[in-house]
């Protein structure tokens, strides 16, 4: 799992995230022109109609026909743009730079807004880099099935592999004499779908629990408990909304959450005092909030920011603490959306079987008990023979 795939998933869940990951000011000013074509000297490049062969062109051109080159001004403009995005997330997405977690975290360290969280999340970063580095890379070379399977098994069963803590049934299947294709598929599922996501969540929660900057972080155990009670996708979202209403003070006298009060606070986030907000506007916003809770509509990143302002106002945080906590608040919403997306895949893998889904998510608590950034302490410490919850 590369960081760019995660970003793509988030943008698909909520297109407004694009402005966070790929701000308009960093996007290529050359519209839809091919960036890599110039850099890698592709045999065909059509930056504009004036620079190509007229109204009708194709990707197959006879070798005897001379090729046009990009206009010097186009090349210069591209160079300036590439210099402007150097060391940003836009660099990786624009023209195929290093897509590893190592490179992504290096870019994050250069960001003033993200850098403040990296020290607390260093164990999480170490886990992502370590998990990525344990798998062999082939550089585009063809590999036969037997050698590919051998390399996968060597990585998964290495002495320092976090996968030694995986589900014992899956580990036994990998050690069996099944067909190579089936074993390769299972190893891929463990890395992409089953075990790796829960491992990453467990490490992330441990970092968040020890961090002083990730204020009001929603404990991921609440997410997992919610899905154990009601194994449906919206359980994650409702849990996050419930947390947001509680910490912002949008509650009734009984202590129960009040969506209408939360709607008023969200409108107040636009700069209006809560007591001066028009009641018709509150009603309209409350209807929108109700649609969020039912999954009929998704709040924008701007609404998530306003919900953070409601928390800041309720807890009377200073502007400095407000700015330092806003990134963690949005990050927790990102995690919620990723959990929803992941649940859809898990639900499909287990054919909508609530028992299997619950048993799967219970392993999150298992991964919380082991240190996935250290060497396994042996089979009895959570590896092959661990009793299933």
Structural topology:
Elements (H helix, E strand, L loop, with lengths): L2 H11 L4 H4 L13 H5 L32 H13 L4 H7 L5 H9 L2 H7 L3 H12 L11 H12 L11 H8 L4 H31 L9 H10 L4 H14 L11 H10 L10 H16 L6 H15 L3 H31 L4 H15 L21
Helix pairs in contact: 1-17, 8-11, 9-11, 11-18, 12-13, 12-18, 13-17, 14-15, 14-16, 16-17
What is the total domain count? 3
Helical amount: 55-70%
* Percent range for β-strand residues: under 5%
Distance between the termini: 27 Å
Task: Provide structural commentary.
The protein has 3 domains: 3-52 and 66-110, no CATH class; 122-136 and 143-210, no CATH class; 220-369, no CATH class. With 389 residues, the protein is mostly helical. The two termini are 27 Å apart. 59% of the residues lie in helices and 0% in strands. The model is unreliable at 45-57 and 376-389 (pLDDT under 50). It has 18 helices and no strands. The protein has helices spanning 3-13, 18-21, 35-39, 72-84, 89-95, 101-109, 112-118, 122-133, 145-156, 168-175, 180-210, 220-229, 234-247, 259-268, 279-294, 301-315, 319-349, 354-368. 26% of the residues are buried.
Q: Key features?
A:
single chain, 3 domains, mainly alpha, 389 residues
């Amino acid at each position: 799992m590369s960081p760019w795939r995660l970003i793509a998933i988030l943008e698909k869940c909520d297109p407004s995230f694009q402005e966070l990951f790929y701000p308009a000011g960093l996007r290529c000013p050359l519209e839809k022109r091919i960036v890599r074509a110039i850099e890698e000297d592709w045999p065909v490049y059509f930056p504009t109609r004036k620079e190509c062969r007229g109204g009708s062109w194709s990707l197959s051109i006879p070798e005897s026909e001379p090729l046009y080159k990009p206009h010097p001004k186009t090349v210069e403009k591209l160079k300036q743009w590439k210099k402007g995005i150097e060391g940003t997330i836009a660099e990786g997405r624009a023209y195929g730079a290093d897509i590893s977690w190592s490179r992504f975290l290096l870019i994050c360290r250069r960001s003033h807004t993200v850098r403040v969280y990296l020290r607390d999340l260093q164990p999480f970063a170490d886990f992502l880099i370590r998990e990525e580095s344990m798998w062999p890379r082939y550089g585009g070379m063809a590999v036969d099935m037997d050698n590919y399977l051998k390399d996968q098994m060597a990585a998964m069963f290495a002495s320092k592999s976090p996968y030694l803590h995986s589900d014992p049934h899956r580990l036994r299947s990998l050690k069996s004499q099944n067909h190579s294709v089936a074993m390769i598929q299972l190893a891929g599922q463990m890395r992409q779908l089953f075990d790796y996501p829960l491992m990453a969540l467990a490490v992330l929660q441990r970092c968040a629990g020890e961090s002083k900057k990730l204020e009001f972080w929603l404990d991921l155990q609440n997410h997992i408990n919610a899905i154990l009670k009601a194994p449906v996708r919206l359980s994650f979202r409702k849990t996050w909304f419930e947390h947001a209403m509680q910490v912002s003070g949008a509650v009734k006298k009984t202590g129960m959450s009040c969506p209408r009060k939360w709607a008023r606070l969200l409108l107040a986030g636009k700069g209006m005092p809560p007591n001066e907000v028009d009641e018709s506007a509150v009603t309209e916003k409350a209807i929108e909030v109700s649609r969020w809770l039912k999954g009929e509509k998704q709040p924008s990143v701007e609404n998530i920011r306003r919900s953070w302002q409601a928390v800041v106002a309720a807890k009377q945080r200073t502007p400095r603490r407000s700015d330092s906590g806003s990134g963690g608040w949005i990050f927790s919403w990102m995690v919620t959306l990723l959990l929803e997306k992941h649940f859809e895949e898990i639900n499909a893998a287990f054919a909508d079987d609530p028992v299997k889904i619950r048993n799967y998510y219970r392993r999150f608590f298992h991964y919380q008990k082991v240190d996935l950034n250290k060497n396994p302490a042996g089979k009895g410490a959570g590896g092959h023979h661990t009793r299933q919850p």
